[in-house]
């Protein structure tokens, strides 16, 4: 009897651990927010990365000429992008963007945005969500960026931000460039405050490139951090510290000076966004990652 009780208890514990493991696995599989987006571009040793954000499609003064210029440039070159939020203006009755000025429904704005992005749908690594689309999501549970990610061909969607790994190859040596992007938060008026935000973000990511949008002000900065030797370490030969370059990118916006931006006394925005060159170069016999960015 004692033996039978012990056997039942054992079976019970095994079943319990099995169910717990399965449930845990199911929960982990559903939680894709920390799942890295990986892109194998081994056919290239150099590509351009032009992160797009803040199109504010539907806004009265959204500048389609400039944003279409970027879309066309990406389509015609070995260039790739992410959509880092506020791609739609999403004005509603009580929102900061003025509904009566936009005079376009979110559905119409969505249709226009999707049509404009079609030529580069295979060059979008990842989509995040900005505060404007989030306000609609919070109000009625409709997530236009999730829909866009699906409609453009199941592009990885990371509403709150995501880590991206892009593999390039030179000769036979492959290297992965790590890029972290999230839309952005809060307000900032000074250039220093805007750049401080992306510096803060770089402190928590350890990616090669950290991309922040939202402030509509293009900026490029670098952090050169001391890197201990990570491989080929011999305890009989001297080892040296190297510097690792981290690129900080503030993307620009695509809305002309008007409306609440003007009324609140913000500075006129830069229209456009930085262009980053990811390249593998030879340093002696070793292939190393090289980053260059321009506005
Ligand atoms: Fe924005
Ligand atoms: Fe924003």
User: Which structural class do you get from the secondary structure elements?
Assistant: alpha/beta
Instruction: Indicate the overall shape.
Output: globular
Strand content: 25-35%
Tell me the CATH topology. Answer: Purple Acid Phosphatase, chain A, domain 2
Provide the number of structural domains.
1
Could you characterize the architecture of this molecule?
The protein has 295 residues and is α/β, with parallel strands linked by helices. The model has no long low-confidence stretch (mean pLDDT 90). Strand 10 and strand 11 form a beta hairpin. It has one domain (35-294): Purple Acid Phosphatase, chain A, domain 2 (4-Layer Sandwich), CATH 3.60.21. The protein has helices at 2-30, 64-76, 99-102, 106-117, 131-140, 144-151, 191-202, 259-263, and strands at residues 37-40, 46-49, 79-84, 124-128, 162-170, 173-182, 209-212, 219-227, 242-250, 275-283, 286-294. Strands 1-5-6-7-9-8 form a six-stranded mixed β-sheet, covered by helices on one side. The chain contains eight helices and eleven strands. It is globular and about 65 Å long. The structure holds fe (ii) ion (2 copies).
């Amino acid at each position: 009897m004692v033996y039978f009780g012990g056997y039942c208890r054992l079976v019970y514990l095994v079943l319990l651990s099995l169910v717990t493991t399965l449930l845990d696995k199911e929960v982990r599989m559903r939680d894709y927010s920390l799942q890295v987006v990986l892109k194998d571009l081994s056919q290239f040793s150099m590509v351009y990365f032009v992160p797009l954000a803040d199109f504010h499609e539907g806004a009265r003064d959204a500048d389609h000429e400039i944003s279409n210029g970027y879309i066309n440039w990406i389509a015609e070159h070995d260039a790739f992008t992410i959509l880092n939020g506020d791609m739609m203006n999403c004005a509603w009755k009580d929102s900061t963007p003025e509904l009566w000025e936009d005079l376009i429904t979110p559905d119409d704005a969505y249709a226009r945005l999707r049509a404009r992005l079609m030529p580069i749908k295979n060059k979008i690594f990842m989509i995040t969500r900005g505060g404007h689309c989030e306000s609609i999501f919070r109000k009625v549970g409709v997530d236009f960026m999730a829909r866009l990610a699906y409609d453009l061909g199941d592009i990885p969607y990371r509403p709150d931000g995501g880590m991206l790994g892009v593999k390039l190859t030179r000769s036979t040596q492959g290297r992965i460039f790590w890029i972290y992007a999230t839309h952005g938060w809060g307000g900032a008026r000074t250039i220093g405050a805007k750049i401080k935000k992306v510096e803060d973000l770089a402190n928590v990511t350890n990616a090669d490139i950290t991309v922040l949008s939202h402030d509509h002000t293009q900026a490029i900065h670098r952090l050169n951090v001391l890197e201990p030797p990570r491989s080929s370490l011999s305890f009989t030969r001297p080892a040296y510290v190297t510097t690792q370059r981290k690129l900080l990118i503030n993307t620009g916006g695509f809305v002309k000076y008007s409306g609440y931006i003007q009324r609140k006394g913000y500075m006129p925005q830069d229209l456009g966004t930085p262009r980053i060159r990811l390249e593998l170069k030879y340093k002696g016999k070793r292939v190393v990652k090289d980053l260059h960015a321009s506005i």
